[in-house]
Specification:
Length: 124
């Protein structure tokens, strides 16, 4: 099969990689904890130079968190409107899923904030 084969099976990994790179900036940074002292210093300098993209990703995750919080609110209203019915059960499942997504997005926000503050304030 060729690389430019239009079948969905071949496009899925590229699409997942694209979505991953849109959501998480880890692919831009290097590991500054391994290697020789010169390599660690060079990697840390590279990471400090790349820190300017972190606020963009931070605000993106804040937007995702706000959307998930609103989805939780909407689904909780639907869940209370039809308790015990199949629509209420589906709303409860979606509400829990949105709440878990909100919690995970808050963790990502905390990690991105801590990384930005560390790379901005700590000199090596």
């Amino acid at each position: 099969m060729a690389c430019n084969d239009p079948t969905p099976r071949n496009r899925l990994p590229a699409l997942l990689l694209y979505v991953w790179r849109l959501a998480v900036p880890l692919w831009m940074f290097r590991d500054a904890s391994r290697g020789t002292a010169e390599q660690r210093i060079a990697n840390y300098r590279h990471n400090r130079a790349q820190r300017k993209v972190l606020p963009f990703y931070l605000w993106k995750w804040v937007g995702i968190a706000v959307c998930l919080l609103q989805l939780t609110r909407v689904f909780s209203v639907q869940m209370n409107a039809a308790p015990g019915e199949p629509a209420g059960v589906c709303a409860a499942v979606f509400c829990m899923s949105a709440g878990i997504g909100f919690a995970l997005s808050c963790v990502v926000i905390a990690v991105l904030s801590a990384s930005y503050l560390y790379l901005s304030c700590v000199e090596r």
